[in-house]
Amino acid sequence: MDDPLQRQACQTDLVNRLSTSQLAIAACLALATIACAPSDTPKSVDSATQNARIALGKRLFFDARLSATGEVSCASCHNPRLAFSDARAASQGVHGKAGTRNAPSLLQTATERNFFWDGREQRLEAAVLQPFTNPVEMGLADGALMQRVRAQPDYRADLQAAYPERGDAIGEAELGAALAAYLRSLPRDRSDYDRHAAGDRDALSAEQLAGLEVFRGKAQCASCHLSTGAPATFTDDGFHHLGVNDAAIAGRVAQLLQELPPPGPTLGRTVLSRADIAGLGRFAVTRKPADLAAFRTPSLRNVAATAPYMHDGSVATLEAAVDQEIYYRSLKHGRPISLTVAERRQLLAFLQALTDRDYVASAQP
After folding, report:
1. 241 among the known binding-site residues?
2. Is 221 annotated as a binding residue?
3. For residue 124, which of 85, 153, 180, 244 is within the disulfide window of CB 3.0 to 4.6 Å?
4. What's the pTM?
5. What spatial distance separates the first Cα and last Cα of the chain, rounded to whole Å?
6. What is the pLDDT of residues 260-275, one digit of tens each?
């Protein structure tokens, strides 16, 4: 294994080679793009209409006809039986194409502020539409999604019920809102930990309770995976470095900066087709040196059901992921964190307690 301290020094050197003007210009362009993004705050509707939008979103989510080959749906990469994640290291889209990123669980989208591993989208309604036109995912041409939906007679009643006031004006924005409504409706925060947080003293075993103490204390997991709040999100919504696969960008940051498209669908297509661009992490969005190779902190809810781990799926098991997190947390704090065999076992037992019990019911189209 490469020396992580050496990697960190290399990463700093890579950033230092970029001129101040290069970074300043790129950062301004990135921030301007983000600042100009419109708001998609869901508007209040009656319960019948909201339920119709959720039903439409669920139908869209499971419909493989909405891909270039007719074989890939949203559920292909976000399997409800796997807490809406993917067992592959990198998801496989149309024509057997594999991307560069591991598909994260979608069960916590209602509480998330940034979407995709690099946080390039802040609006769920927009984020859910990007995979349809990504050539590595569902592969439709721009504008083809609405054409596909309108070509299916069985969608007419669903569209009318979900957007009775829109008529023929229904477009992709409405489809995105319906998909977002469905994802926000998914059951969440119903784990053994939530029962414990609500006062059920029997919800966690003695080993899991000990693991919670390790999580919040010695292992320092809660410094990034926050366990406060009601319900706790188990993420700080931030972006952090773990030194995962830095080799893809070593010595090439200045060159890659010149090749970066602006944030948005085009960036998403590039990220999924090029491992070197994907390795830039949050930097690809902000162009800030501090964000080089930093990735979004995922929620640890349902973590036991969502292997493999990390943004590229390079860590196969939960045990290995815990070991890697502890290792890099030790580097961050400048001192080793040495868990005993018992403490490691307790921590893993606690992470099992973050699994929701109801999401499998959402597995049927």
Report:
1. no
2. yes
3. 180
4. 0.86
5. 44
6. 998 878 999 999 999 9
